[in-house]
Amino acid sequence: MKNFEYYNPVRILFGKGAISKISMHLPEGVPVLLVYGGGSIRKNGVYDQVISALGSTEFYEYPGVQPNPVYEQLMPALDIIREKKIGFILAVGGGSVIDGAKFLAAAACYTGTDPWEILSMHAAVKVALPLGTVLTLPATGTEMNGNSVVTRLSVKHKLAFGSSAVMPVFSVLDPEVTYSLPKNQIANGIIDAFIHVLEQYLTYPSKAEVQDRFAESLLMILRSTGSKVFADSEPDYDNMANFMWAATNALNTSISMGVTSDWSTHTIGHELTVLYGFDHAVSLAIVLPGVMTHLSVKREQKMLQFAERIWGITSFDHQAAIMESIRLTEDFFRCLGVKTKLSDYGIGAEVIGQVIDQLKSHDVNMLGGAGDLSIEDVPAILASRI
Ligand code: NZQ
Ligand code: ZN
Question: Binning pLDDT at 50, 70 and 90, where does residue 191 land?
Fold first, then answer.
């Protein structure tokens, strides 16, 4: 196991009615900016719960954060933050709303020319406004990490930044607020979380038993309980609670400590989303089987462990076992209603040059962080998905 330093100060307020506890964790005497999305929280009663929990706190609203949050849509909120002397941001929604709020928290304290530099030039984020979250969609893990992904439409760049300064002070996880989720967003959440675990697990052995076994238990829960949540005709509290907590643990980065991660599926997936508007998880479901197949020899040991422990496949023919596990993984995504081939969406070989151009435009050469994939591998990965 490699050396590591793990820091995660996010307070989790989990369970039924937990939104009512928000006021206990807000700083006193500062105006709050309530940031939310396209209106789901107004339809499902979460907005009313939040307003009631805010009580007499002075607050302002910034609605309209889009899926795959957009820099151009977020920037006007900075004027409100300055004018109203906002001292705390409360993000209520899915990963997009929370990531958008994290960007605002960092941008509000940015002293350079344009806050986009936080993403495009990796400008360090040492200070940010404090923020809290009410999560309404289990998927990204952003509620318990310091990452944020923002898209700038004018240049077609979807980029990430990370800083402990934007880790939420608290995150409310009430499984009941997810009952209004449409099935396709539940499927997205299961797939995104499943692939988060894989990208921290499916690389090279690190003799990290805690991380491996924890990752494997999350994969099993996302597979079994996730499937139940997807199939439930009426929401089941405990199924949803287990799915929600699994998704949070899938990317609160504890399973990545001391091991080699590889975020290449996300890197390529972000380009597909920018180019074709795919939901985040759909882009990943398309790319992952290609990355796994491409690396099946180099990463044989860990892939075999995945095949055996998650899918129960044992065979003397290691490559056959791995290929079967990739087939079952893709089948799992398809059973959740997500099509996994580019050709399913009418996309052909033209995608390869487009993705390569995108990656070059932000100077990507090596992909993922495991040191075994470069931009030169991308054409073969995408070609296998057409
Ligand atoms: O905008 P509203 O009206 O709220 O509707 C949303 C949106 O249309 C809806 N929704 C959310 N909660 C709901 C609900 N509808 C009914 N009932 C509820 N309870 O769901 C739609 C999708 O929401 P979105 O926030 O876009 O989805 P998700 O949580 O999957 O977030 C995706 C974003 O997170 C980024 C992705 O790249 C993408 O931009 N990621 C962030 C990460 C991080 N910060 O650590 C890691 C991830 O890998 C990911 O990259
Ligand atoms: Zn993701």
Answer: very high
Ligand 1 atom 26 nearest Cα: 67
Question: In percent, how much of the chain has pLDDT > 90?
Answer: 99
Atom of ligand 1 nearest to the CA of 148: 44
| pLDDT in the model for residue 165 | 98
Rounded distance between C-alpha atoms, residue 10 and residue 218, angstroms: 20
Contact status, residue 225 vs residue 246, Cβ threshold 8 Å: yes
- What integer best gives the mean pLDDT of the chain? 97
Ligand 1 pocket: which of 49, 74, 140, 188 to mutate (most atoms <8 Å of CB)? Answer: 140
Report residue 77's pLDDT band, with 50, 70 and 90 as the boundaries.
very high
Which pLDDT score, from 0 to 100, does residue 347 have? 98
What pLDDT sits at residue 70?
A: 98
Residues in the ligand 1 pocket, defined by CB under 6 Å: 37-41, 44, 67-68, 93-97, 99, 136-137, 139-142, 145, 147-149, 177-178, 180-181, 185, 188, 192, 251, 266, 280
Residue 150's CB is within 10 A of a number of other CB atoms, namely 26
What is the CATH class of 183-383? mainly alpha
Q: What are phi and psi for residue 97, nearest 5 degrees?
A: -65, -45
Q: What is the pLDDT of residues 155-165, one digit of tens each?
A: 999 999 999 99
Locus of tokens 């992909």: 367
Q: What is the pLDDT of residue 101?
A: 98
- Domain with residues 11-177, CATH architecture: 3-Layer(aba) Sandwich (3.40)
Task: Indicate the domain borders of the chain.
Answer: 11-177, 183-383
